[in-house]
Automatic annotation (TrEMBL):
<dbReference type="Pfam" id="PF13484">
    <property type="entry name" value="Fer4_16"/>
</dbReference>
<keyword id="KW-0479">Metal-binding</keyword>
<keyword id="KW-0819">tRNA processing</keyword>
<keyword id="KW-0560">Oxidoreductase</keyword>
<feature type="compositionally biased region" description="Basic and acidic residues">
    <location>
        <begin position="403"/>
        <end position="419"/>
    </location>
</feature>
<dbReference type="InterPro" id="IPR004453">
    <property type="entry name" value="QueG"/>
</dbReference>
<dbReference type="InterPro" id="IPR004155">
    <property type="entry name" value="PBS_lyase_HEAT"/>
</dbReference>
<dbReference type="InterPro" id="IPR011989">
    <property type="entry name" value="ARM-like"/>
</dbReference>
<dbReference type="InterPro" id="IPR016024">
    <property type="entry name" value="ARM-type_fold"/>
</dbReference>
<keyword id="KW-0671">Queuosine biosynthesis</keyword>
<feature type="region of interest" description="Disordered">
    <location>
        <begin position="403"/>
        <end position="425"/>
    </location>
</feature>
<dbReference type="GO" id="GO:0052693">
    <property type="term" value="F:epoxyqueuosine reductase activity"/>
</dbReference>
<dbReference type="Pfam" id="PF13646">
    <property type="entry name" value="HEAT_2"/>
</dbReference>
<keyword id="KW-0004">4Fe-4S</keyword>
<keyword id="KW-0408">Iron</keyword>
<feature type="domain" description="4Fe-4S ferredoxin-type">
    <location>
        <begin position="197"/>
        <end position="227"/>
    </location>
</feature>
<dbReference type="Pfam" id="PF08331">
    <property type="entry name" value="QueG_DUF1730"/>
</dbReference>
Amino acid sequence: MRRIGSERDPAVTSRDKIALAEIRPLAEEVGLPEIAATDASPFDDLATPLAAYAARGRTGFEWDNASERMDPRFWLPEAKSIVTAALPYLTEEGARQMRHHPRSDLRGQTSCYVYGEDYHRVLSERLTELAKRLEKLVGREIRHRVAVDTSPLVDRRVAERSGLGWIGKNGMLFSPRYGSYVFLGALLLDIEIEDAKHLPPDVGKFCGDCDLCMRACPTQAFVAPGELKATACLSYVTQMKGTIPRPYRKPLGRRVWGCDVCQQVCPHNRHRAPARDPSFSPDAEAAYPDLVRLLKMSNRQFLRAYGRSAMAWRGVRTLQRNALVALGNLRRPEAVPVVARFLASDRPELRASAAWALGEIGGEDALRELQAALGSEQDPDVRQEMEEAIANVSASICRRGVRRDEEGSGHRRGEHADWGDVAGG
């Protein structure tokens, strides 16, 4: 819990209530263009959704205790109200960068929310400053807490109940002005807000029959409108610990952090207003990292290059694991030398990812590197990855040899096709 120790005007009479209309200009001054408010009563309507979410499998990033997630007063016992904020982050330049991938290079791809500065810091600082200004307005010290992504609260439901926006079938909160490209934060206060709202949950209220987001998901992670199997979401997969499960490697494509598909396909995001916040001006290198450069970085070099971004918190090794998978999906032979170096990494997830990538890239060089590494590998899971990669590369080399023999013998393509060719594989 945070207390504020700013100077107050002795002529200001202490107050226990405030109107949202009085808060809005202060929020604008600190860089919060969209705010709303709700009371601090428990979110009893979350009991069933949270139980269902837990049954589908938690990611490990959430607060474990559901009852604590439902009651704002666990986070701040004195809380009477909650100011919610939606901070838009996708600028015009960011939208252009998102549409124009430099596909000719060995570059990865990140979610547009990490193009600019780390939103945790930006939004937390602005909400804290808003609290200071509110204290001056009401003429007393305010007990408060700031919640930006790391509190027990279910941010999207808090925002929805306050009237800040509505939740789409992709589970994202949509601002009427900025679409779903907004960061959410909350400021719990020990002061009553007179016109605070208390709206019921209504997922997909403006989606109608549209389910583009659910159908476009690369891993089909949506189990129902607004309901996600979180461990199948590629945004989680790029942040998870350990080796990426096989079913999610190819769907990752070039991604090294996050996924925007369910936002990009949404019709409601086509006519949103752009963000104009300089904190979120896009960094081209953060948007499309050089994969080879990323694999050569130390953690210190990584933080120097990407430390301002929201993806920096996981550290260089997680991004390098993702980069290895991305290079495997790109299947570019020139990447073999830098990928092969990770077969000797001290991290099993990096050795496993490098083995899989080499198995996808293929070729004689990849095969030699895999065979050499297999002899000294002790981890059974990594050995299995290497063995499967060797089998994959060997089969690929064999198929190429057969095709060359057929072409040399004058056979037309398809006369001796294998079942994969016949099936269109």
